[in-house]
Specification:
It is a single chain. The mean pLDDT is 97. The protein has 2 domains: 5-34 and 292-406, Aspartate Aminotransferase, domain 1 (Alpha-Beta Complex); 41-273, 3-Layer(aba) Sandwich (Aspartate Aminotransferase, domain 2). The protein is built from 16 helices and 13 strands. Helix 2 (36-48) runs antiparallel to helix 12 (271-284) and helix 12 packs across helix 13 (293-317). It is of the alpha/beta class. A 7-stranded mixed sheet has the order 2-8-7-6-5-3-4, sandwiched between helices. Strands 9-10-13-12 form a 4-stranded antiparallel sheet. The protein has helices at 5-9, 36-48, 58-78, 91-103, 124-127, 150-154, 179-188, 208-211, 235-240, 253-256, 264-269, 271-284, 293-317, 345-353, 367-372, 393-406; strands at 24-25, 85-88, 111-115, 135-139, 161-167, 192-196, 215-219, 229-233, 323-324, 336-340, 357-358, 360-362, 382-386. The radius of gyration is 21 Å and the shape is globular. Keywords: Pyridoxal phosphate.
Length: 407
């Protein structure tokens, strides 16, 4: 493993909290622990510059500069310019506003492709455009594996399609979808690609230039940061969409697609995500390669998670009473691992909690996916075990032992 768990965990105050000592955290897909650099920036903003930003006095100028820095630093992490970056209260809210903006650009008879692999945030808002005469085409998963076939996408694409909305990886299936290939196919058909990166971004901020997505959305609180939704949008595409903010902010790119009043402090704190990723790259050192700290952090985090996932997936393969959703190969998936068992997922999670394993069960807002997989999303659901690079090998073994005892 390229990352020393002790050095990584030292950057997260949660691991020193008395109420969390002895608890192994396996619900990271619902929100990760917050990194120290994020907390430092949040504390600084609240203590020294909790005023209206972008004014003429010193504290206001500092506040505005702290917010501007977050746009710049996240753009660095994505390998784009800062005019790609937009903040909103959550990814669900950001997608809702974005879909409303597209409604003003699309015409009846135009088509949108959505999947049933998604969290509802990147599906429901787009599907509602059917009420405006937009044709909704569903790119459906394989009912056994949850896999999205590129051949199935090809069958849906034609000149009527204006947008494809798909996940980088599902919050249940976990399989990493080939976004660059999806982008090529969408662009060849004259469509734009909106990617829900909520379940992927905690495992490494992607290089958007290499990925090719026109829109990439994720939740900062799942990427070691504050509770904000972040959208990266190709600037020329953003400028072509109808203004969703106050009419007098039409010419301000940061206000046009995020009409909610911004949380100044949390935006400023988000620069700490980039700070943390640079620390990850420094801890990895020469163990990984990449053109910049963010690509090296991505490589290190993925390598760490693959190594951590392998023994867990090997154990699950020995159990014929468990249905693993998604691939068993750790290199093909994020470490968000959903299991279907004869017992409802939440009941298993309760027993695991008694053993110091923090996990959960349910449908995780992927109701359409579970229905497609033949799993009752409302009364049964799945047990979801999700971890990231700061999880330790010892915690993985504790989880295996607990599953062996409780299933």
């Amino acid at each position: 493993m390229p990352l020393d768990p002790a050095r990584i965990r030292a950057l997260f105050p949660a691991f020193a909290e008395p109420n969390l000592v002895g608890q192994a955290f396996f619900e990271n897909a619902g929100g990760s622990y917050t990194a120290q650099p994020v907390l430092d920036r949040l504390d600084r903003f609240y203590r020294a510059s909790k005023v209206q930003p972008y004014g003429v006095y010193a504290a206001s100028i500092e506040a505005g500069e702290a917010m501007n820095l977050a746009y710049e630093r996240l753009a660095q992490a994505f390998n784009v310019t800062s005019d790609w970056i937009h903040f909103g209260p959550s990814t669900s809210a950001n997608t809702y506003v974005l879909a409303h903006a597209f409604a003003g650009r699309l015409a009846p008879g135009d088509a949108i492709i959505v999947t049933n692999q998604d969290h509802e945030a990147n599906s429901g808002a787009w599907r509602r455009l059917a009420e405006r005469g937009i044709e909704i085409r569903e790119w459906a998963v394989d009912a056994q594996t949850g896999h999205l076939s590129l051949a199935a996408l090809d069958a849906l694409l034609d000149g009527k399609v204006k947008l494809v909305a798909a996940p980088h990886c599902s919050n249940i299936v976990g399989e990493i979808n080939p976004v660059a290939e999806i982008a090529d196919k969408a662009h060849a058909a004259g469509a734009v690609l909106a990617v829900d990166g909520v379940s992927y971004a905690p495992h490494g901020i992607p290089d958007l230039q290499a990925l090719g997505a026109d829109i990439y959305l994720f939740s900062a609180y799942k990427v070691y940061g504050p509770h904000q939704g972040i959208m990266a949008i190709r600037p020329e595409l953003a400028a072509s969409l109808p203004n969703q903010g106050h009419y007098f902010n039409e010419a301000k790119p940061r206000y046009r697609l995020t009409p909610a009043g911004p949380d100044h402090a949390q935006i400023a704190a988000s620069a700490g995500i980039a700070d943390y990723l640079e620390q990850v790259a420094a801890i990895a050192g020469d163990a990984v390669q990449g053109p910049d700290p963010f690509r090296r952090a991505h490589a290190a985090m993925r390598a760490q998670e693959i190594a951590l996932a392998r023994p867990l997936l090997d154990f699950l393969r020995t159990r014929n009473d468990i249905r693993l959703i998604g691939p068993a190969d750790p290199e093909r998936r994020a470490p968000t691992i959903a299991l279907h068992h004869a017992e409802p997922g939440i009941e298993i999670a309760r027993r695991l909690a008694a053993r110091g394993i923090m996990a959960s069960g349910g449908n995780f807002y992927a109701v359409r996916l579970l229905e497609a997989l033949g799993i009752d999303p409302h009364h049964h659901g799945v047990l979801r075990l999700s971890f990231v690079h700061y999880t330790s090998p010892e915690e993985i073994q504790r989880l295996i032992d607990a599953l062996d005892a409780e299933l």
